[in-house]
Amino acid sequence: MINSTFNFFTLANSLNAFRSLPHVFGLFSIKDAIDIFIVAICIYLVLIFIKQTQSFFIFGSIVVLFGIDFLARTFNLGLTRQLFQPLLTFFVAIFVLVFQPEIRKFFKWFASGRRMSFSKALVPDDNVQTLVRAAFEMAKKKIGAIVVLPGDYPLDDLVEGGFPLEGKISFPLILSIFDPTSPGHDGAVLVEGSIIKAFGLHLPLAREFSEYARVGTRHRAAAGITERTDALAIIVSEERGEVSISRSGKLIKINTPEKLADAIHEFMKDEPTQEVQRSFWHYFVKKNAGSKVFAFVGAVILWSVFVYQAGVVNQEYDVPIEFHYVPTNLTVAESIPTNVKVTISGNNTDIENFKDTDLHAVVDLKDVKAGKTRIKITKDNIKIPSYLDLTSITPKDIEVVLK
Known about the structure:
about 400 residues, alpha+beta, YojJ-like (1, RNA Polymerase Alpha Subunit, Chain A, domain 2, about 25% strand
């Protein structure tokens, strides 16, 4: 137990030394830069989640409520605070419940760093023309169909059922898959590069039912997969004989083969010319430059509001001296003085939340012999939370009598 306590205080002392690292930009210290970097990473992860789940409205509502709550606390708006604090808790709980499957899958993807089963790959131009020709041929015959082209986000946790195929894209194969007598004609086809990976897949339905009231389950399923991922879906309506595409949960009617080919090429642009597989970390590190900039700027703004502008204050404490590692055959007979006065500094919020029980003055008597001994008190003897700074100690030494 004694060793554990000693190690803990040694670690705390090391953290205090870390806080005293020099400033790197005049305004920011190295500690502040690391603080901002960690918050920026968290914001970036949230932005990726928003992008992949298309949950902009829900997150926007929560941000607005947080902003109102912050203003209410800052300006002491009693009524506003009383009204909006329960609403904020309610919205956060609703968000977690509604997006529970996406949250679980997202963190599974993040934690494992695994490679995606279905990765974005360039569809050769002749295969694009085959897809376009097949779509409009099925529209002419009023044969329903869904063709999904995956993006960077993995689909294997979102699609269900189906039959693996690994067949080369061809006009007869596509028409045979969606033939009404085929066992998988009601499902979706997944295309990767020049290969049909699987058919008969079941896709998640879109959440915004009102927008799809005029269409059937096939369109809602296509919108559902693009609502949750960055995939492109091509839909052929069985009832109206129309061709549509879906991206980001939105349906767009396509009137001509040329427009469908352009839409596929637009989806595939800036992609590598060979089929590759990407992990979460590829997506995390090499993609989303705009999101990274936004996350960094947001972290700097938060640091400015909650740390820099909060101001640094000093507070003095009278701390009892604790003696550790007293030799087994001796006792502390006298200590002059019994307390030391220390001054700590930190931003106003940290000082207000700080409890003086977290402050310790520890003296190691392991090598001290019987009699009177003068011991110097340094920063190493004062144990404070790592987010605070120690500015002064009075007195600088004490006298201890062991008997």
